[in-house]
Design a protein that fits this description.
By secondary structure, the chain is of the alpha+beta class. The chain has a domain of 157 residues: Muramoyl-pentapeptide Carboxypeptidase, domain 2 (2-Layer Sandwich). 47% of the residues lie in helices and 10% in strands. The protein is built from ten helices and six strands; from the N terminus they run αααββαβααβαβαβαα. The radius of gyration is 19 Å and the shape is globular.
Length: 264
Protein backbone atom coordinates (compact mmCIF):
# COMPACT_ATOMS: atom_id res chain seq x y z
CA UNK A 1 0.00 0.00 0.00
CA UNK A 2 2.81 2.43 0.89
CA UNK A 3 4.57 1.68 -2.41
CA UNK A 4 1.32 2.34 -4.29
CA UNK A 5 0.89 5.71 -2.59
CA UNK A 6 4.49 6.63 -3.36
CA UNK A 7 3.88 5.98 -7.05
CA UNK A 8 0.72 8.09 -7.05
CA UNK A 9 2.48 10.93 -5.26
CA UNK A 10 5.34 10.79 -7.71
CA UNK A 11 2.87 11.01 -10.58
CA UNK A 12 1.14 13.97 -8.99
CA UNK A 13 4.46 15.68 -8.30
CA UNK A 14 5.46 15.40 -11.96
CA UNK A 15 2.12 16.86 -13.02
CA UNK A 16 2.56 19.88 -10.76
CA UNK A 17 6.07 20.50 -12.10
CA UNK A 18 4.73 20.34 -15.65
CA UNK A 19 1.95 22.83 -14.97
CA UNK A 20 4.32 25.17 -13.14
CA UNK A 21 6.69 25.18 -16.12
CA UNK A 22 3.82 25.95 -18.47
CA UNK A 23 2.66 28.87 -16.36
CA UNK A 24 6.22 30.15 -15.88
CA UNK A 25 5.54 31.19 -12.34
CA UNK A 26 8.92 30.40 -10.86
CA UNK A 27 12.25 29.19 -12.23
CA UNK A 28 15.13 26.91 -11.34
CA UNK A 29 15.39 25.65 -7.81
CA UNK A 30 12.67 27.98 -6.59
CA UNK A 31 10.22 26.36 -9.01
CA UNK A 32 10.95 22.87 -7.71
CA UNK A 33 10.64 24.03 -4.12
CA UNK A 34 7.29 25.72 -4.83
CA UNK A 35 5.98 22.62 -6.59
CA UNK A 36 6.92 20.45 -3.64
CA UNK A 37 5.16 22.80 -1.23
CA UNK A 38 2.00 22.78 -3.36
CA UNK A 39 1.99 19.01 -3.55
CA UNK A 40 2.32 18.43 0.17
CA UNK A 41 -0.27 21.09 0.89
CA UNK A 42 -2.58 19.28 -1.51
CA UNK A 43 -2.19 15.81 -0.03
CA UNK A 44 -1.91 16.70 3.65
CA UNK A 45 -2.63 20.10 5.21
CA UNK A 46 -5.15 21.38 2.70
CA UNK A 47 -7.32 18.30 2.81
CA UNK A 48 -7.15 17.61 6.49
CA UNK A 49 -4.32 15.09 6.52
CA UNK A 50 -4.81 14.27 10.18
CA UNK A 51 -8.52 13.70 9.77
CA UNK A 52 -8.00 11.60 6.67
CA UNK A 53 -5.58 9.38 8.54
CA UNK A 54 -8.17 9.05 11.30
CA UNK A 55 -10.81 8.08 8.76
CA UNK A 56 -8.48 5.50 7.21
CA UNK A 57 -7.75 3.83 10.53
CA UNK A 58 -10.72 5.03 12.54
CA UNK A 59 -13.70 3.28 13.97
CA UNK A 60 -16.81 2.39 12.04
CA UNK A 61 -19.09 5.46 11.86
CA UNK A 62 -21.74 5.28 14.55
CA UNK A 63 -24.48 5.84 11.99
CA UNK A 64 -23.73 2.62 10.12
CA UNK A 65 -26.43 -0.01 10.49
CA UNK A 66 -27.42 -3.31 8.95
CA UNK A 67 -25.13 -5.71 7.14
CA UNK A 68 -22.93 -4.44 4.38
CA UNK A 69 -24.08 -5.28 0.84
CA UNK A 70 -22.45 -8.32 -0.74
CA UNK A 71 -20.18 -6.32 -3.01
CA UNK A 72 -16.41 -5.86 -3.20
CA UNK A 73 -14.32 -2.71 -2.93
CA UNK A 74 -12.68 -3.91 -6.14
CA UNK A 75 -15.90 -3.82 -8.17
CA UNK A 76 -15.68 -1.49 -11.16
CA UNK A 77 -18.50 0.78 -9.99
CA UNK A 78 -16.86 1.32 -6.60
CA UNK A 79 -13.41 2.36 -7.77
CA UNK A 80 -12.28 5.18 -5.51
CA UNK A 81 -10.70 8.18 -7.17
CA UNK A 82 -9.78 11.22 -5.11
CA UNK A 83 -6.76 13.31 -4.16
CA UNK A 84 -5.09 10.30 -2.58
CA UNK A 85 -6.09 7.77 -5.25
CA UNK A 86 -5.14 8.74 -8.78
CA UNK A 87 -6.57 7.18 -11.92
CA UNK A 88 -4.27 4.35 -12.94
CA UNK A 89 -3.46 2.86 -16.30
CA UNK A 90 -6.19 0.57 -17.52
CA UNK A 91 -8.99 2.57 -15.90
CA UNK A 92 -10.03 4.24 -19.16
CA UNK A 93 -13.75 3.55 -19.65
CA UNK A 94 -15.45 2.11 -22.69
CA UNK A 95 -17.84 4.91 -23.50
CA UNK A 96 -21.48 4.84 -24.46
CA UNK A 97 -23.83 7.68 -25.39
CA UNK A 98 -26.82 8.93 -23.44
CA UNK A 99 -29.94 10.06 -25.29
CA UNK A 100 -28.78 13.68 -25.05
CA UNK A 101 -25.40 12.85 -26.60
CA UNK A 102 -23.27 12.98 -23.46
CA UNK A 103 -20.67 10.24 -23.05
CA UNK A 104 -20.41 8.02 -19.98
CA UNK A 105 -19.14 4.56 -19.11
CA UNK A 106 -21.41 2.40 -21.25
CA UNK A 107 -22.32 0.28 -18.22
CA UNK A 108 -24.27 3.14 -16.60
CA UNK A 109 -26.22 4.30 -19.68
CA UNK A 110 -29.34 2.27 -18.87
CA UNK A 111 -29.31 3.27 -15.20
CA UNK A 112 -29.24 6.97 -16.00
CA UNK A 113 -31.87 6.73 -18.73
CA UNK A 114 -34.20 4.92 -16.33
CA UNK A 115 -33.62 7.61 -13.71
CA UNK A 116 -34.23 10.40 -16.22
CA UNK A 117 -37.47 8.80 -17.39
CA UNK A 118 -38.70 8.33 -13.83
CA UNK A 119 -37.99 11.98 -13.04
CA UNK A 120 -39.82 13.06 -16.19
CA UNK A 121 -42.90 11.07 -15.11
CA UNK A 122 -42.83 13.09 -11.89
CA UNK A 123 -42.69 16.32 -13.86
CA UNK A 124 -38.95 16.87 -13.31
CA UNK A 125 -36.61 17.34 -16.25
CA UNK A 126 -32.98 16.48 -15.55
CA UNK A 127 -30.33 18.29 -17.60
CA UNK A 128 -26.75 17.04 -17.75
CA UNK A 129 -24.18 19.81 -18.04
CA UNK A 130 -21.10 17.60 -17.76
CA UNK A 131 -20.41 13.88 -18.01
CA UNK A 132 -17.23 12.17 -19.24
CA UNK A 133 -14.13 14.39 -19.36
CA UNK A 134 -10.76 13.24 -20.59
CA UNK A 135 -7.52 14.14 -18.80
CA UNK A 136 -6.67 17.06 -21.08
CA UNK A 137 -10.09 18.64 -20.68
CA UNK A 138 -9.88 18.34 -16.89
CA UNK A 139 -6.42 19.91 -16.99
CA UNK A 140 -7.81 22.84 -18.94
CA UNK A 141 -10.58 23.38 -16.36
CA UNK A 142 -8.10 23.24 -13.50
CA UNK A 143 -5.61 25.61 -15.11
CA UNK A 144 -8.40 28.05 -15.94
CA UNK A 145 -9.44 28.08 -12.28
CA UNK A 146 -5.87 28.74 -11.17
CA UNK A 147 -5.50 31.62 -13.62
CA UNK A 148 -8.80 33.08 -12.40
CA UNK A 149 -7.56 33.20 -8.82
CA UNK A 150 -4.20 34.60 -9.91
CA UNK A 151 -5.96 37.38 -11.84
CA UNK A 152 -7.50 38.37 -8.51
CA UNK A 153 -4.02 38.81 -7.05
CA UNK A 154 -3.43 35.43 -5.39
CA UNK A 155 0.07 33.92 -5.67
CA UNK A 156 0.35 30.60 -7.49
CA UNK A 157 0.48 28.41 -4.39
CA UNK A 158 -2.70 29.91 -2.94
CA UNK A 159 -4.41 29.84 -6.34
CA UNK A 160 -3.58 26.14 -6.73
CA UNK A 161 -4.81 25.30 -3.26
CA UNK A 162 -8.10 27.19 -3.64
CA UNK A 163 -8.70 25.69 -7.07
CA UNK A 164 -8.32 22.14 -5.76
CA UNK A 165 -11.25 22.63 -3.39
CA UNK A 166 -13.74 23.23 -6.21
CA UNK A 167 -12.17 21.61 -9.30
CA UNK A 168 -10.61 18.17 -8.98
CA UNK A 169 -6.91 17.91 -9.77
CA UNK A 170 -6.30 16.29 -13.18
CA UNK A 171 -5.95 12.54 -12.73
CA UNK A 172 -8.34 12.50 -9.76
CA UNK A 173 -11.67 13.32 -11.41
CA UNK A 174 -14.53 10.82 -11.40
CA UNK A 175 -15.67 12.39 -14.66
CA UNK A 176 -12.60 10.81 -16.30
CA UNK A 177 -13.95 7.42 -15.19
CA UNK A 178 -17.24 8.11 -16.97
CA UNK A 179 -19.11 7.37 -13.74
CA UNK A 180 -19.97 10.92 -12.67
CA UNK A 181 -22.59 13.39 -13.87
CA UNK A 182 -23.18 17.06 -13.16
CA UNK A 183 -26.95 17.55 -13.31
CA UNK A 184 -28.79 20.87 -13.39
CA UNK A 185 -32.21 22.26 -14.36
CA UNK A 186 -33.34 24.01 -17.51
CA UNK A 187 -34.02 27.16 -15.50
CA UNK A 188 -31.13 26.76 -13.06
CA UNK A 189 -27.77 25.95 -14.62
CA UNK A 190 -25.51 27.48 -11.98
CA UNK A 191 -23.25 25.03 -10.16
CA UNK A 192 -23.82 26.30 -6.64
CA UNK A 193 -25.63 25.32 -3.46
CA UNK A 194 -28.86 26.87 -4.72
CA UNK A 195 -29.39 23.79 -6.88
CA UNK A 196 -30.45 21.83 -3.80
CA UNK A 197 -33.62 23.94 -3.63
CA UNK A 198 -34.68 23.20 -7.21
CA UNK A 199 -37.18 20.47 -8.06
CA UNK A 200 -34.33 18.60 -9.72
CA UNK A 201 -32.09 18.84 -6.66
CA UNK A 202 -34.84 17.66 -4.34
CA UNK A 203 -35.90 14.80 -6.63
CA UNK A 204 -32.34 13.55 -7.05
CA UNK A 205 -31.65 13.66 -3.33
CA UNK A 206 -34.67 11.45 -2.69
CA UNK A 207 -34.60 9.11 -5.69
CA UNK A 208 -31.07 8.93 -7.18
CA UNK A 209 -30.03 5.98 -4.94
CA UNK A 210 -32.91 3.92 -6.36
CA UNK A 211 -31.05 3.97 -9.68
CA UNK A 212 -27.54 3.48 -8.29
CA UNK A 213 -26.39 7.11 -7.95
CA UNK A 214 -25.14 8.92 -4.85
CA UNK A 215 -24.63 12.57 -4.00
CA UNK A 216 -20.86 12.30 -4.06
CA UNK A 217 -19.82 15.44 -2.19
CA UNK A 218 -22.33 16.14 0.61
CA UNK A 219 -22.20 18.78 3.32
CA UNK A 220 -20.08 18.22 6.41
CA UNK A 221 -17.93 15.57 4.73
CA UNK A 222 -15.47 17.94 3.06
CA UNK A 223 -12.70 16.90 5.43
CA UNK A 224 -12.98 13.38 4.02
CA UNK A 225 -13.72 14.03 0.34
CA UNK A 226 -11.49 17.11 0.00
CA UNK A 227 -14.21 18.73 -2.14
CA UNK A 228 -16.75 21.37 -1.15
CA UNK A 229 -20.46 20.56 -1.13
CA UNK A 230 -21.74 19.89 -4.68
CA UNK A 231 -25.49 19.13 -4.77
CA UNK A 232 -25.31 18.71 -8.56
CA UNK A 233 -22.57 16.02 -8.71
CA UNK A 234 -23.80 12.41 -8.77
CA UNK A 235 -21.70 9.27 -8.99
CA UNK A 236 -22.80 5.79 -10.03
CA UNK A 237 -22.01 3.04 -7.49
CA UNK A 238 -24.80 0.53 -8.08
CA UNK A 239 -28.25 0.39 -6.48
CA UNK A 240 -27.43 -1.73 -3.44
CA UNK A 241 -24.38 0.36 -2.53
CA UNK A 242 -26.09 3.68 -3.28
CA UNK A 243 -28.98 2.89 -0.95
CA UNK A 244 -26.67 1.71 1.82
CA UNK A 245 -24.38 4.74 1.54
CA UNK A 246 -27.30 7.16 1.56
CA UNK A 247 -29.25 5.49 4.38
CA UNK A 248 -26.16 5.48 6.59
CA UNK A 249 -24.95 8.99 5.79
CA UNK A 250 -21.64 7.80 4.37
CA UNK A 251 -19.41 8.99 1.58
CA UNK A 252 -17.66 6.66 -0.82
CA UNK A 253 -14.36 6.87 1.08
CA UNK A 254 -16.02 5.58 4.26
CA UNK A 255 -17.96 2.89 2.45
CA UNK A 256 -14.91 1.53 0.62
CA UNK A 257 -12.99 1.44 3.90
CA UNK A 258 -15.76 -0.60 5.52
CA UNK A 259 -15.76 -3.05 2.63
CA UNK A 260 -11.97 -3.44 2.82
CA UNK A 261 -12.12 -4.01 6.56
CA UNK A 262 -14.66 -6.80 6.03
CA UNK A 263 -12.46 -8.38 3.38
CA UNK A 264 -9.34 -8.41 5.57
Amino acid sequence: MKEYLKKDRAKAFLHIIKRSLALKIVTGGLMLFACAVVFWLQTDAVYGGEKEETEEKGETPETVKDELPKVSADDWELVLVNKQNYIREGMEPELGSLSDGHKVDKRIVRAYERMSEAAKKDGVILVICSAYRDYDYQTGLFDKKIKGYMSEGLPYLDAYRNSAFSVTVPGTSEHTLGLALDIVAEDYSRLDEGFEETDQGKWLKEHAPEYGFILRYPKDKEYITGITYEPWHFRYVGVESAEYITENGLVLEEYVRLLKEREE
